[in-house]
Structure formats: structure tokens, C-alpha cells
Amino acid sequence: GLGDHRDGTWIPRWTDAINASFPVVGNDVVECQYVSYDDIFEDTELSGFEIAGALWKLTKSGIGSLGRRDRGVFDKATKWVRWSAGYVVAWVEDDGFQEKTRKRLLDAIAAHKPDVIIAHSLGSLIAYNALSHPDALDSAALKSAVRKTTLVTIGSQIGNPYVIGNLTMGRLEALPIAFWHHCFNKHDSVFTKPISLANADNFLQTDTPFDIEGAADHAADCYISHPAAIDNIWLPLCQEKKTE
């Protein structure tokens, strides 16, 4: 997701949340593989002007979308702003960034053939771009792996009007995968929006509201371990794998 995660401390938090939330039985285990893209962005410097422009594009007001914590977040965490709003816009507007991150994710899918992809924040944009792109059909093996996977997006900006208008040409489409689950937290103030795909029979939005202190209500582990996610996503997925 968004933010500088190069130290890798996010990985055990995700792993703990996943292991605590997936209702596995007996000797079953959940095997996690992680894909990071911070290194693709780390040499990109954004000026204050570019960050202000990114905020305007995502909020149409400069600051409004971060809700009750607006000024405190921006006054105290310019680094966070750089790795959040700045990089959403930098990625959406840069075909080179998109190509590099798309290749990294599709290479990982080809190598690991995942049952489930959990994509947080900017990672959800990367996942949507990769899974909807013709590159996902480059080989029969990759195409097969893509079609069998389930995507779970959390803390996602995919529904943000700026993203829809510039990344998806004004419209979100159903993905050629087994299923797409979208978790939406109405308290998440990092430019997220709900998603509606009325004509897609392989899409479902699950409301996962939580309100935590000091993290803009955007924490991936809180999405993963939310009771609604367990009941509506993880439990059915584990039951489905049991019957295969």
C-alpha cells in the first residue's frame, strides 16, 4: 500500500492478521508471498508544488478529503504525504511506473499462482491495472493463473473520481478473474471511495468500518482482520478450497 515500507515491518503485521483471520482447519496452512514496489518509487522526488497538485487532483479542494485529521496530518507528516497522495498521482500519470509495477505483479502471479491477492491502497490500483491489462494474457499459463485468482482490495483509491477518470478512462470494468472483493471503510480518509459494478457477477463490496487512532483509518491489518471480512470473504474462500 501507500507509505514508505522499505524496512519490511509491515510484513509480520500482515502475516499475523492473515493467520489470525483465515479459518483454516487441521493441517492446512496459509502460505504468504509478498510483493513490494517501494524501490520503484524511492528515487522519485516530488516538490511541494507537485504534492499540492496531487492533493488537489485527489480532493478537488487541496485538503478536504482527509477529514477530521486534515491539518494535523499534513503539518506533521510531509513524508507521509509524499508517499501517499504524491505517489498515487505520480503512478497514475506515469506509464513507466505502471509498466514496471504491472510487470512485477504479473511475474509474481506467474511464479506463485496465488489463490488470493490482497492489495492495499496504491497496491490495489497496481493490481487492477495488471489484471485488466493485455499483458495478463501474455501466456496461457499466466492467463490461467489470473483467471483462477481472487482479488481482495482494501483501503483502495480505485473508486476515486480522479483515478477513474485518468487510469480507467472513466469507467471501472469487471476483471477476468474468479472474483473481486472490495472492502470499504467509510472512516478511511486516504482518498478512498466505494465501488459499484452493477453488471459484474464476480464483484462484491463488503463494508468494513473501523475507526482507529492516529492512522487515518487506513491500516491494512485492520481491514484483513475485520469481522465482516472474515465472515464474507475469508471463511467462504477457505470453505471453497476445502471442496476442490
Could you characterize what this model shows?
The structure is a single chain. The protein is of the alpha/beta class and 244 residues long. It has 11 helices and 4 strands, in the order ααααααβααβαββαα. It has helices at 10-21, 38-41, 48-59, 70-76, 78-92, 95-112, 122-132, 140-148, 161-166, 220-224, 227-243, and strands at 116-120, 150-154, 179-184, 203-207. A 4-stranded parallel β-sheet has the order 1-2-3-4, with helices on both faces. Mean pLDDT is 84; it is low at 61-77. Helices cover 48% and strands 9% of the residues.
Quick structural summary:
With 244 residues, the chain is an alpha/beta fold. Helices cover 48% and strands 9% of the residues. It starts with 9 loop residues before the first helix and ends with a helix.
Strand content: 5-15%
| Poorly predicted sequence stretches spanning 5 or more consecutive residues | 61-77
Number of helices: 11
Helicity level: 40-55%
Number of E strands: 4
Q: What about the largest sheet?
A: 4 strands, parallel
Backbone structural class: alpha/beta
The order of strands across the largest sheet is 1-2-3-4
What Rg, in angstroms, do the CA atoms define? Answer: 17 Å
Oligomer: single chain
